[in-house]
């Protein structure tokens, strides 16, 4: 009996060990497939965009392979409650790359040539900072509205009425497409991995309008359904397996843009962008204007909890010390130095849902800035004082977008998170003002 019991105990042990070994091998195999697929998808997307930046090689002082893209984006797959208004879609990660916006229309605004001449050379008009923590008025005057509301309205009306005659890869992940309208102009169509991403990008666009930040290209929503606008590409839509119930976003495709590297004061080894920074005294006017836009970008990304721009770079430093020396995710620049904030799918909805994972990095990035645009600060102060960010954003969204009801709005919980972040940003601005009050 003793021998029999011992025999069966060893047999059970062997079976358990075999099962564990099999499970381990299965996990390793799946991890290997995921790793290879991530690398392949990243390589294919870069190849399809065929994007090159003059002088870009000088930014790549680390390995030629983008390690941060594979490792960081693999961590973005966080489970979420599935929504039904955009069809059945699986949860995933934000895989969009900044180079997706190389388009066919040259970016240009009135007065660019005159402003370009004023930007060149050293600063001659005085200090870049006024009233302790604000960019000077003369700098504000040199930076125009990039996408004016009038321009955006004209583009949105055209985008809603123009038939789509072609869909092709070129706007980030495979599920998104580059659309060509019947007049030859183009737009990026964001189907999104789930409805949260389309909703987040849309609400982020309208929050930027509420804050007076004009660096985002115009955006509209469109219902695929049986709309005549999509009739010419119905076969392509079927091949993509897009749901007829889906609401997609279309953003203007801008050409003649280049990548943007994180400025020195905002890198990990710097003391930050603050009024006492001697480094500012040696910057050209163009350099100061770019820094002004960076301060808006950091404020904006903090409010929306967008982790797929500077925050992702900060996170990636733990395995990629050269990540700050390469182009920043989802950020491009015109020939005149105007920054364009693209691919904001990670903002608000998705960003708020995974906030606990990224908050320490958001806080670190915000803490690195103590110089702000007066206009942006005034908008933040108003939203803090009246505590009505939800109402204002909802009204602007509903008044501007006919499909707002179908796509939906922030949950009460996320609206409260937005107001809380506005309040925290306001307190940070006051902290900066007190810290540099003796300047």
TrEMBL record:
Which keywords accompany this UniProt record? Membrane, Transmembrane, Transmembrane helix
Highest taxon in the source lineage: Eukaryota
Query: Which residue ranges run through the membrane?
Result: 21-40
InterPro entries to which the protein is assigned, alphabetical: FJX1/FJ
| PANTHER family named in the record | FOUR-JOINTED BOX PROTEIN 1
The protein, known as = Four-jointed box protein 1
């Amino acid at each position: 009996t003793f021998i029999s019991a011992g025999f069966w105990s060893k047999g059970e042990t062997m079976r358990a060990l075999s099962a564990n070994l099999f499970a381990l091998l299965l996990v390793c195999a799946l991890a290997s497939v995921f790793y290879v697929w991530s690398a392949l998808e990243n390589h294919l997307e870069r190849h399809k965009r065929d994007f090159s930046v003059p002088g870009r090689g000088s930014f790549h002082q680390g390995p030629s392979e983008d390690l941060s893209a594979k490792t960081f984006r693999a961590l973005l797959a966080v489970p979420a409650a599935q929504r039904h208004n955009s069809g059945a879609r699986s949860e995933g990660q934000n895989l969009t790359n900044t180079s997706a916006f190389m388009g066919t229309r040259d970016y240009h605004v009135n007065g660019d040539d005159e402003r370009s001449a004023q930007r060149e050379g050293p600063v001659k008009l005085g200090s870049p900072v006024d009233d302790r923590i604000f960019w000077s008025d003369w700098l504000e005057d040199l930076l125009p509205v990039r996408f004016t509301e009038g321009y955006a309205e004209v583009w949105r009306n055209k985008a809603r009425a123009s038939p789509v005659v072609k869909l092709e890869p070129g706007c980030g992940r495979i599920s998104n497409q580059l659309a060509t309208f019947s007049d030859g102009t183009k737009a990026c169509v964001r189907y999104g991995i789930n409805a949260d991403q389309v909703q987040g990008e849309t609400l982020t666009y309208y929050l930027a309008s509420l804050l007076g930040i004009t660096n985002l290209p115009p955006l509209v929503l469109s219902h695929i359904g049986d709309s005549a606008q999509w009739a010419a590409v119905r076969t392509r839509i079927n091949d993509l397996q897009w749901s007829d119930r889906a609401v997609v976003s279309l953003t203007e495709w801008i050409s003649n843009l280049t990548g943007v590297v994180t400025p020195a004061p905002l890198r990990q080894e710097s003391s930050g962008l603050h009024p006492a920074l001697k480094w500012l005294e040696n910057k050209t006017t163009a350099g100061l204007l770019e820094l002004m836009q960076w301060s808006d970008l950091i404020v904006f990304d903090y409010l929306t909890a967008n982790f797929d721009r500077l925050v992702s770079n900060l996170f990636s430093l733990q395995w990629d010390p050269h990540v700050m020396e390469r182009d920043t995710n989802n950020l491009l620049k015109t020939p005149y130095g105007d920054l364009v904030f693209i691919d904001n799918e990670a903002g608000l909805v998705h960003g708020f849902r995974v906030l606990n994972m990224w908050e320490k990095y958001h806080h670190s990035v915000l803490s690195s800035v103590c110089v702000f645009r007066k206009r942006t600060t005034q908008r933040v102060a108003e939203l803090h004082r009246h505590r009505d960010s939800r109402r204002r954003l909802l009204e602007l969204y509903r008044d501007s977008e006919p499909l707002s009801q179908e796509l939906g709005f922030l949950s009460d919980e996320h609206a409260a998170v937005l107001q809380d972040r506005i309040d925290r940003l306001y307190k940070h601005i006051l902290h900066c003002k007190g810290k540099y009050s003796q300047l």
